[in-house]
Amino acid sequence: MKPTLSLSLQFADKSHRDTLARHKVARWLKAALDTDAEFAVRIVGEEEGRALNKDFRKKNYATNVLTFDYAIEPVVMADLIICAPVIEREAREQGKTLEAHYAHMLVHGALHAQGWDHMKKKDAEAMEAQEREIMAALGFEDPYAD
């Protein structure tokens, strides 16, 4: 049985709203789920992204995705904060479409919410392999290809 998803999609930064149709975001997140989940996805600007990263990770810059995970069992519960200007810049630098990079960061954040990590090399390799598999199933190219 496929996992269910309860999704709240919020746009503090509306610049990519057309790229992030609710049905697409839900599809990308569901592809990364092993269990039922409740996600709030908030698309933010540089200022909010920097403030959150500074407050919670002690890093004074905006990052692409922040995952605030609250529960894994019996239902995954998390907030995923995505910084629109960072996603746009990274997509351009990496030669990816905006849609492909958003999909990857949502998959990445959903995996973090389920306990995946990439701090150790072995864990990073496993997480990247899982991301590649999910992205391929969604019809996207390898997000880690050069």
Percent helix, as a range, is 40-55%
- List low-pLDDT spans: none
Total beta-strand segments = 4
Task: Give the strand order, joined by hyphens, for the main sheet.
Answer: 1-2-4-3
Largest sheet, in brief, is:
4 strands, mixed
Pattern of helices and strands:
EHEHEEHHH
Find the structural class using helix and strand composition.
Answer: alpha/beta
Commentary on this structure:
The protein is an alpha/beta fold. The chain is built from 5 helices and 4 strands; from the N terminus they run βαβαββααα. It has a 4-stranded mixed beta sheet with strand order 1-2-4-3. A hairpin with a 4-residue loop joins strand 3 (65-71) and strand 4 (76-83). Helix 3 (84-94) crosses helix 4 (98-113). The radius of gyration is 14 Å and the shape is globular. The protein starts with a strand and ends in a 9-residue tail after the last helix. 31% of the residues are buried.
Secondary structure elements and pairings:
Blueprint: E1 5-11, H1 22-31, E2 37-44, H2 46-57, E3 65-71, E4 76-83, H3 84-94, H4 98-113, H5 121-137
Parallel strand pairs: 1-2, 2-4
Antiparallel strand pairs: 3-4
